[in-house]
Design goal:
By secondary structure, the protein is an all-alpha fold. The chain has four helices and no strands. The longest helix has about 45 residues.
């Protein structure tokens, strides 16, 4: 033991009598694996929930616009061209969202 200590010291190593416990590698792997898995699962759930909310909002918006379009009298379409109507609807929708359109 003394020869080994003197050999290690001559090579620049410091020897002590402190014992370092072995790391519980399996436990650490399970913990990190569980954390990574939960981050992946929650990220996937968040993306799916966002997709569902976005699709439901789009359905609601389109259904509302279609119902209102069906209630318009036919005389409106006879007196106004379709392009003008679409331009007005687009301008109104984009102004509600906070966009300004100068070219329309």
């Amino acid at each position: 033991m003394i020869k080994k200590d003197s050999l290690l010291r001559s090579q620049g190593f410091n020897t002590t009598n402190i014992t370092i416990p072995d790391s519980e590698t399996d436990f650490n792997v399970y913990v990190y694996g569980g954390v990574i898995s939960s981050v992946f699962v929650f990220g996937l759930l968040r993306a799916l929930m966002y997709f569902k909310v976005a699709v439901d909002a789009a359905k609601h918006l389109h259904n509302r616009m279609f119902r209102r379009l069906l209630r318009v009298p036919i005389r409106f379409f006879d007196t106004n061209p379709v392009g003008k109507s679409m331009k007005d609807i687009l301008r109104q929708l984009l102004n509600e969202e906070g966009f300004s359109i100068d070219f329309l």
